[in-house]
Amino acid sequence: VQPALALEQIVPACQLVCDPVTMKWVVKNTGTGTATNVVVTAQLPEGWTTADGQRTLSFNAGTLEACEQREFEACVTAANTGTFTTNAVASADCNLRAVATGSTELVKPD
Question: Which residues of 48-87 are buried (b: 16+ CB within 10 A; e: fewer)?
Fold first, then answer.
C-alpha cells in the first residue's frame, strides 16, 4: 500500500495581458495508500500577482485517499507581455512530491 501524487496545472496558452489569468491545479493521489498533509504551492512569474499582491500561492489539500483528487483555482494579473512559465509542486508526508509547469503567452490587444 503506497500513496503517490500527480499534479496537473491548467493555464491558458495565450491571452490578452489586460485580462485576468485564470489558473487551475488538480492534485490526485494515484497510489493505493492514503496521502496525508498534501499541499500545492505555485510560484508566479515576475510581474504576476494575486489580488492581494502575492507571488506565491499555497493550497492545503489535506488528506487524499487512493484515487481521490482536489482542485484549486486562482485568478491573477500580469503586468507585462511575453511568454511566462509557472511552476507548481504538490508535496505530502513520506516525501511524496509531484511537479507541474505551464506556459502562457500574454499579448497586447489589437
Answer: beeeeeeeebebebeebebeeebebebebebeeeeebebe
